[in-house]
């Protein structure tokens, strides 16, 4: 994004100057909110223009309010009509344009407001809640997203998407208002005394009340908003036209249907709003500290950043984000991570590092999480400083993503809108034809106008939106029966297009729980024999002591709680854990230690180990550490465990066996989960200094102790599900934070890696002072060692799949971005990936044209789940809001069900759309033919077609279930592609020809009497021509319902849908009855003129039967066989296809990639120690032959 701006002009502080010649400042500068960030938006300022305002009001009157209605749909147009563009510092209103992926534009028109502290006794309204400003202090304190802090008398602000932006005069731009998460050091937090009451009031003016308030609109508001949508406005227009044509019964029926539709929509919308509000809105009371020793209980809604709060010892639900200053907290973060495993939060270190809520997440309590209990000195309170409130919190960001979801980038939806435009053009053509045709026959002008407008209402089906949702609803209900919930029905059709599925490994492909296999000790640089019975050997090896102490377990209600891996590891030792209460430990500046005690009958001689300090697991560092001391021992011991590669890198090479990587490879290739352990002896450090030691001082120059080996079994459903997905032509990708060899072993076991395919590890070498960055390709069958990397020979015909680590992914993104498409296209296993890297990979897959489904357990998969076209969470925790689908069955077989139902729903949507489209065009054709003699279909004829036939068929069309087998390749996603267009055109061609044939053939009978238009009775339509066209068209609607109801390979056969089949048979019988020998009251109601002899009636049935045979031949033989298999492949061009991965794969084959080649690129500081901002160098991708 930034690169793009650099190409077009100079960028300063988010203002891009475009060189367009001598124009005014506000025209040559494009301003941005959140410049260079993911949520970057354009912003323009506007000020009121009285002349434009008066002209707009005059236009409202002249257009009878139609212009105001259009402005309701497009508020930015109203802004253009009443305001003039101006510099941002003079703006009264702003127009904010959010361009999602440069494809979709969403506009927000917002008022510029002024907040001031210099208003004594003034009542200031913030978020619809009144606060009285009684302070004499004149400055408002604001913290901005660029890390600056300002004290101002007044500030100009705008609100957009639940966030506040503050005008910075110095930088001449609006900057996002944030909490205390940027530009503040850790030591500054420890010097905080909390806000006084005056500071609280002032900050409440700035930040508003602390709540995540989801607006619930009133029924009247929802009614007005729903009624003013384009669909219902067109419906109102249609009702007026039908009423003018005296179609009273039809008008009443449509009114009833519209009322039902509006009511249903209002009820569902209000229910969703209430459910979301009930889920996220919560409030409590909290104890706030003022100054040194003053405490007061206030509602959590009054909290503001900078307040110092007390975390109760019995726990609480966090209503804000806060930094923990002292003590420990046991927290359930399932709302954020999806894992209900409690985590321990420790006090923020008192150092000069800048606070970062991601880096210091182990010291931050997040809004929406539940504090189970706290620990500190027995009589001391646990304190935390509020950093963020309301929608600024982590929970607030999650709710914002629900309220403002990204636009659906789906070809089917886009094409459906284009088809509506095509119908509008057809309607316009019919409108013009009717006017000229009838005017030439000297029909009354009003009657001509009504007839022409009637044709417009026929050409565009008003029931189309409702009909399109039916298939999705059936699919949702079927998924619900399979214990799969969906919170976003629009994703149903998208799931039918999925051609790539990404899986997390642990907890998704494999079981959550791990079984302890044993340990592989290292003593004096020698690898000992594996030990499986650890229970009786805990004192023999230091690695066992590391298992006892190096974990984040805690006791909740006397029950061991924490990571399942840590629990399994600790329980295998047979020792016990205690957390005793110590009355006074403040003289040691120490929290209550965790005691690990040996289990013996004679407890007097039992060994005890006290855990003094913990450094929690960091996904960035890939390890955790503890400092402990054995009872009676004069020195301390530190133990570190984590990813084997990381622990080896932190260890003194003198303690690491030379063949340790081969041993690691031996276990990981068997699918075992391997954890490295190392230790360090700490001497000469006083007891009270231990908690103040920095992590970097501990995690260096360690003594390597060996490996802990655990079994990680596949879930029973995994292999069969992967096989099914691969047989369906899916690209399967594993994303995991685990070791790469373990990931490859699991991928081989479950079938992600094809048997017989080579596995190529993509390895990067960072640039140094003397050498450039390199990337190598290595066969995992080669022997790994410290000194050499053996490259593998590649041949064009060789089949291979790529694997790489998160580190390699990061390096390739930085140094070799041109390789990303090829690596993504051929990559199947991505190991040691962080949550952000998983999200990046999903986005790169989408850039190649894949429709991506992501299936994870919610741990660090939330970013990928949100970014994917279809997210499927296996967690029932609140984090499942990150994905539209949530499975109550925790295995990946749900992905098959989601894709099958999605495909069935997509094919149903195609069928329903074609049904509704052809229904409108068929009715349009009937009316055009009858208009030639100034007759038409009657009111009840229209009603019978719309209600008894079309609405009936559309209601049960989607009830056909998904096909049992997952077909290879997804269905089509484009309505404007060759085959759907051919199907619709050929069908309508047959329909029109048959109707014209019926119209003229009925005139060949001896008893035929032509229709004569009566100007005195313009609504009299009964004639033989009407009978022929109407009766033939009745069967044509039945034919289209049958023809477009596709079965195999994505849906079951039509005869399995018993209700739909029954309605088809019933309507055939009813239409035959109406055609042959209807009762007198039916003849009167439908205003039919029946042929006096049966020859004319039977001829209609014969035409209908011939029509069916021809249409079936056209659809099944011509379209689905001949055009699909022989014609379409001849015109397919993969270079122009949306599926860019096909082009990439073609290039890989043609270039025999990977091969020896050089790349030149510009990147930032590729050589270590360089001080220049940018270095241009040749970056070599090396492969030896």
Task: Please explain how this structure is put together.
With 1185 residues, this protein is an alpha+beta fold. It is 39% helix and 22% strand. It is built from 35 helices and 48 strands. The strands form eight sheets. The protein has a twelve-stranded mixed beta sheet, with helices on both faces. A nine-stranded antiparallel beta sheet has the order 29-28-38-37-36-35-34-33-32, sandwiched between helices. Helix 4 crosses helix 5. It is globular. The two termini are 39 Å apart. The model is unreliable at 1-28, 120-129, 131-136, 582-590, 781-796 and 1156-1180 (pLDDT under 50).
- Overall structural class, as computed from helix and strand content, comes to alpha+beta
Number of strands: 48
What amount of the residues lies in strands?
15-25%
- Helicity range: 25-40%
Please work out how many helical segments DSSP would assign: 35
Rg is 36 Å
Strand order of the largest sheet: 26-46-45-44-27-39-43-42-40-41-48-47
Which outline best applies? Answer: globular
Uncertain segments: 1-28, 120-129, 131-136, 582-590, 781-796, 1156-1180
Give the terminus-to-terminus CA distance. Answer: 39 Å
Mean pLDDT: 81
| Largest sheet geometry | 12 strands, mixed
Catalytic activity: ATP + H2O = ADP + phosphate + H(+)
EC number: 7.2.2.-
Keywords: ATP-binding, Endosome, Magnesium, Membrane, Metal-binding, Nucleotide-binding, Phosphoprotein, Translocase, Transmembrane, Transmembrane helix
Domain P5B-type ATPase N-terminal: 37-168
